[in-house]
Amino acid sequence: MNNNFDRNFSEQELVRREKYKKLVEQNKDPFRETFFDRTHNTKELLEKYNGFSKEELQSKNGEQISTAGRIRLFREAGKKAIFANIQDQVGMIQIYVREDEIGAEAFESFSDLDLGDIIGITGVMMKTDHGELTIRVKKYVLLTKAMKPLPDKHAGISDIEEKYRRRYVDLIVNPETRDVFIKRNKIIRTIQKTLDDKGYMEVETPILHSIRGGATAQPFTTFYNALNNDFYLRVAPELHLKRCIVGGFEGVYEIGRLFRNEGISTRHNPEFTTIEIYVAYKNMYFVMDLCEELIRTCAMAVNGKTTLSYGGYDLDLGKPFKRLHMVDAIRDIKGIDFWKPMTFEEAKKIADEHKIKIEKHHSTVGHIINLFYEEFVEETIKEPTFVYGHPKEISPLAKANADDPRFTDRFELFILNREYANAFSELNNPIDQFERFLDQVKESDQGNEEANDMDIDFVEALEYGLPPTGGIGIGIDRLVMLLTNSESIKDVILFPQMKPRG
């Protein structure tokens, strides 16, 4: 392990450190400051004062305000005056500093500040001859000295990897980035309010699980010292949330991080955020309607409309989403009818003819149907579509369809080739659930690293009685990508996982 922490500072960094050293020598160390009392942020100042004329603001000359922010722009206005822009979370505003207003010593110190420094100011509002709302500074204090320079205003962060590695710099210099995360927060709050208004309760369930379960995904493994055993970071909260319904709650949801030990790409981050919702006495079709409602409500909350463009494709989320059975979708695309009963050998022969790769744990017709769907259908779906009727073998937690038990009452929402939600009428028969878990154990033994473990405690919970229940998981990150027209999942996660620098 390399413990060499020697650092090579740029010329600008050395200059800033020298400035800081002088401040300390003058007993003006900015890092001693612990508090600054703001009367307004920049947005509030613009909203309150921008409607006044230059003359009206002059008549308010005694009305002092205080605000704070990061210096983003300097512009000299003669030898005795400086214009600057300061930025806070909600915006940017111009300030005007004159030597005859703050004193020669303070003006000289202000002139020596750098872009990126954080200051607090007290002053009065004015407008320039060009009509720009401006703070006429009466007093300022340096709150933080920036030791590193910000990227060039025009070039920005040229290395896209650095944009994600140094998200804090990206947030400073790119208002578009800040806007994405403000919208992300609004989406989550909108979902919470919508569900709270329906009487559903937000709960918290464990992140460390003693067994693999809740979804077909490869988990991260860790060792729990106190219990002397391996545990898994959860791949889904599903089984604990359904235990809540067994316990008598009739509508619960959880927004939180999941962890899947899989690849990193523009669509996948191994650590991501979902919401899972479970409602008693409801089924898959109720959950379809709920899913549509949540997505439309979020679109209106962040964009004020249900129409949007993503990747150059125009969508209208206000229209009813399509509903398509998986077997019908395969028949429409490939002309193969999996409604007809067939043996595994017959299905495998069809798969071989279409060059579908069959793994050892793909041992049923249901597995092959799903492989056909993933290979040939997913990439064709553009408009919002609920694809339902997944085979029983790949849906160990979903209720079998009453009319054709080869398939389940499960759906996935696809938009523009991407999955946004996964939902079922929940399996509540403990005998059937035990058998399904046994099948998952067999798949695990055959090499399926994503298979569920046997969860006897969950089976016993079902034996106490789970009412008919509809459940859904929605990917928050992908929903934010869609509603903010973000190309990569890294654009909507504040601090995405990154490969080590080469």
From TrEMBL:
<dbReference type="GO" id="GO:0000049">
    <property type="term" value="F:tRNA binding"/>
</dbReference>
<dbReference type="Pfam" id="PF01336">
    <property type="entry name" value="tRNA_anti-codon"/>
</dbReference>
<dbReference type="InterPro" id="IPR006195">
    <property type="entry name" value="aa-tRNA-synth_II"/>
</dbReference>
<feature type="domain" description="Aminoacyl-transfer RNA synthetases class-II family profile">
    <location>
        <begin position="184"/>
        <end position="500"/>
    </location>
</feature>
<feature type="binding site">
    <location>
        <position position="419"/>
    </location>
    <ligand>
        <name>Mg(2+) 1</name>
    </ligand>
</feature>
<protein>
    <recommendedName>
        <fullName>Lysine--tRNA ligase</fullName>
        <ecNumber>6.1.1.6</ecNumber>
    </recommendedName>
</protein>
<keyword id="KW-0460">Magnesium</keyword>
<comment type="subunit">
    <text>Homodimer.</text>
</comment>
<dbReference type="InterPro" id="IPR018149">
    <property type="entry name" value="Lys-tRNA-synth_II_C"/>
</dbReference>
<keyword id="KW-0436">Ligase</keyword>
<feature type="binding site">
    <location>
        <position position="419"/>
    </location>
    <ligand>
        <name>Mg(2+) 2</name>
    </ligand>
</feature>
<dbReference type="Pfam" id="PF00152">
    <property type="entry name" value="tRNA-synt_2"/>
</dbReference>
<dbReference type="InterPro" id="IPR045864">
    <property type="entry name" value="aa-tRNA-synth_II/BPL/LPL"/>
</dbReference>
<dbReference type="InterPro" id="IPR004364">
    <property type="entry name" value="Aa-tRNA-synt_II"/>
</dbReference>
<dbReference type="GO" id="GO:0000287">
    <property type="term" value="F:magnesium ion binding"/>
</dbReference>
<dbReference type="GO" id="GO:0006430">
    <property type="term" value="P:lysyl-tRNA aminoacylation"/>
</dbReference>
<dbReference type="InterPro" id="IPR044136">
    <property type="entry name" value="Lys-tRNA-ligase_II_N"/>
</dbReference>
<dbReference type="InterPro" id="IPR012340">
    <property type="entry name" value="NA-bd_OB-fold"/>
</dbReference>
<dbReference type="GO" id="GO:0004824">
    <property type="term" value="F:lysine-tRNA ligase activity"/>
</dbReference>
<keyword id="KW-0648">Protein biosynthesis</keyword>
<dbReference type="GO" id="GO:0005829">
    <property type="term" value="C:cytosol"/>
</dbReference>
<dbReference type="InterPro" id="IPR002313">
    <property type="entry name" value="Lys-tRNA-ligase_II"/>
</dbReference>
<dbReference type="GO" id="GO:0005524">
    <property type="term" value="F:ATP binding"/>
</dbReference>
<dbReference type="InterPro" id="IPR004365">
    <property type="entry name" value="NA-bd_OB_tRNA"/>
</dbReference>
<keyword id="KW-0479">Metal-binding</keyword>
<feature type="binding site">
    <location>
        <position position="412"/>
    </location>
    <ligand>
        <name>Mg(2+) 1</name>
    </ligand>
</feature>
<keyword id="KW-0067">ATP-binding</keyword>
<keyword id="KW-0547">Nucleotide-binding</keyword>
<keyword id="KW-0963">Cytoplasm</keyword>
<keyword id="KW-0030">Aminoacyl-tRNA synthetase</keyword>
<comment type="similarity">
    <text>Belongs to the class-II aminoacyl-tRNA synthetase family.</text>
</comment>
